[in-house]
Amino acid sequence: MTLGAVLTAIVTPFAPDGSVDEQAFVDLMGHLYTSGTDGLVVCGTTGEASTLSTEEHLRLVELAVEHRPASATVVASTGSNDTRHACEMTEKATAVGADAILSVTPYYNKPNRRGLVAHYTEVARATDKPVVLYNIPSRVVLDLDNAMLAELAQIERIDYVKQANNANLAPVDGLQIYAGNDDLFGSVLEMGGCGGILVASHVVGPAMRRMVDEPDQRAEIEASLKPVFDALGVTTNPIPIKAALDLVGHPVGGLRLPMVPADSREREVVRAALAGVGVL
Predict the structure, then answer these.
(1) Model pLDDT, residue 2
(2) Could you tell me the residue range of the domain that residue 131 belongs to?
(3) Which residues are catalytic?
């Protein structure tokens, strides 16, 4: 069993006053589900979880559960560098109906390997749902190397990894693999992984769906999307994807400081890439 092949790490829309725009979130869910998305990752990096209150965070998980199609999955990102807080959020997200938990490597503290095992043991005890490890050393400093991932896979309910370190991409005993970067999606599918936790699927979802459904065309489709993947990395995520959504007619508002909207140059890079694949 997987949680779906195309999981979109959904942005969090904000109203002009900076509050969460719940209706825009529900509307965006509808767009994603009609564009090839199998499920959502809610309140992850792309969802600006670091600047959401606990109440906002859990409300977004609740909305995602309430408004999903029957076959769709909801993965709640509940990671923290405070194990107690990570467990509390995991328990609450499970209670409101999340199908799985995404748990990022504890950041800033730099725990050693024994600390990482202890942390994830407690997180896994806080739910009866599958746990997806999230390896993203570019954000958290620590890298979960493949030997560490295999060790963590021995913990009951730790079943998946979102791999956002391209250099580590390889099968791991005991874990199913999701691409954590859009440019890994094709490679993960080719190696028999689950799919991807994706950002570009907000705007090129049908093409990314085709990468799953039309394996003979996968390399060609991926090559055509490379300019979009590159453009969405022109500055820090989720700045470019929010600009992209605005350009294609799904406005989701601004960002919470210290994140700022795309400037004119960044916006033009995104616009040109979207025009190049025919979505504008």
Answers:
(1) 83
(2) 6-214
(3) 134, 162
